[in-house]
Design a protein that fits this description.
Layout: H1 2-16, E1 24-37, E2 56-66, E3 71-84, E4 87-101, E5 108-123, E6 126-142, E7 147-158, E8 164-180, E9 255-258, H2 275-287, E10 291-297, H3 305-327, E11 334-338, H4 351-357, E12 360-366
Parallel strand pairs: 10-11
Antiparallel strand pairs: 1-2, 1-8, 2-3, 3-4, 4-5, 5-6, 6-7, 7-8, 9-12, 10-12
Helix pairs in contact: 2-3
């Protein structure tokens, strides 16, 4: 019953043992004392009526090596003796143990052990050997990086007889010439679990499952200010005004922009100082990509109507060319018409009025497009 219980305790502990973390490494030397409890079913004596007076203390010495991982290998010599009512006998054994350490966050380090060895018994004038396996668990307490107190309990099961002794050990472990592996850094905090640590996360509350960029913010592949997971119209043009769903804002009415471009008499060349007026049209069309523009050219009343019609068309086309060539608006969105001397805005009888009538008007209208809702 005793050895079955010990095996069950050790097995349960091994199942629950967690992987170790980086530990100090080096050669170990472990002097110990202990208490050895013999199995009551042992038949070590020629007279079956003989019995032990009591179980005995022992001394042991272990030497081994501890790696920068949970494992330690150890060679141990143990010596002890006991008395029976028939006389004295001595026992010695050598064993090799493997220790598996369980990581903790304090000075205590639990460990599990398993090993095998040879036991030599000197019973009166007789001597014999028996092989055994041993297994158990223990705990270390580190006083510093080099010295630890250590205690363990183990079962020692004979491979030649059906007996299991129990040994309780207390000792000091010295680490010689050791080195330590750097402890793994603590995982940085990531409150929204987006894979970007809080200390570099510019968007600390992105919804679960949303793809983010290196700054921890939801991806916005078309850079319209609406994250992809909310964007119903991916791929909008750069700089365009969009609604909360990431879709173009569609104009509901026609806009007319009267350009402050003055043409010389009988001329259709756009003076460079008026390019800023045309750029305002380009900026408006960038904000609203679903729009087209028609440039309407006009003249004053001097000259024939046919001549004025042609001149007004040339003026409108000149402004259209500046918009396309200088401000990269698609030609498919731009057209030009001439209205000749029609619809004057000032009196053609004065020089000032005629200058005002030599004009180009930009008429911007929405292009109806189907969009996702």
């Amino acid at each position: 019953m005793k050895n079955k219980l010990l095996i069950m305790i050790c097995a349960a502990g091994l199942v629950q043992a967690a992987p170790g973390v980086a530990q100090e490494s080096g050669f170990t030397l472990t002097p110990s004392i202990g208490y050895y409890a013999f199995d009551s079913d042992r038949a070590l004596f020629s007279n079956p009526n003989d019995s032990y007076e009591d179980d005995e203390a022992f001394f042991s010495m272990g030497a081994g090596y501890r790696w920068n991982n949970p494992w330690q290998l150890e060679l141990v010599y143990l010596a002890g003796d006991t008395e029976t009512n028939a006389g004295e006998f001595n026992f010695n054994h050598w064993r090799v143990d493997g220790l598996y350490h369980v990581a903790t966050e304090n000075n205590f380090t639990p460990y599990w052990l398993v090993g095998a060895g040879e036991n030599t018994v000197e019973e009166f004038s007789a001597e014999y050997d028996e092989s055994f396996v041993n297994y158990g668990f223990g705990v270390k307490y580190a006083f510093n990086h080099a010295v630890s107190a250590r205690t363990d309990i183990r079962g020692i099961t004979s491979l030649d007889e059906e007996q299991t002794d129990v040994a309780l050990t207390l000792g000091l472990q010295f680490l010689l010439g050791g080195s330590s592996a750097p402890a793994a850094p603590a995982a940085p905090l990531d409150a929204d679990n987006d894979g970007v640590a809080d200390n570099v996360d510019s968007c600390l509350s992105t919804p679960a499952g949303v793809e983010v960029d290196d700054n921890g913010c939801a991806l916005d592949s078309d850079n319209d200010g609406v994250a992809d997971y909310k964007d119903s119209c991916l791929g909008t043009e750069a700089g365009a005004k969009v609604d909360a769903k990431g879709c173009y804002i569609i104009l509901s009415e026609t806009h007319k922009i009267e350009l402050q471009v003055n043409f010389a008499n009988n001329a259709s060349v756009v003076p460079a100082e008026y390019f800023s007026e045309i750029k305002a049209v380009a900026d408006f069309m960038t904000d609203y990509p679903a729009t087209d523009v028609v440039f309407e050219g006009y003249t004053d009343s001097r000259g024939s109507s046919d001549y004025n019609q042609t001149l007004s068309e040339q003026r409108a086309e000149a402004v259209a060319n500046v918009l396309v060539s200088n401000f990269s608006v698609l030609a498919s969105r731009v057209s030009a018409v001439g209205n000749g001397e029609a619809s004057p805005v000032a009196d053609n009888e004065t020089a000032e009025g005629r200058s005002a009538n030599r004009r180009v008007v930009a008429v911007i209208s929405a292009t109806v497009q189907k969009r996702a809702e």
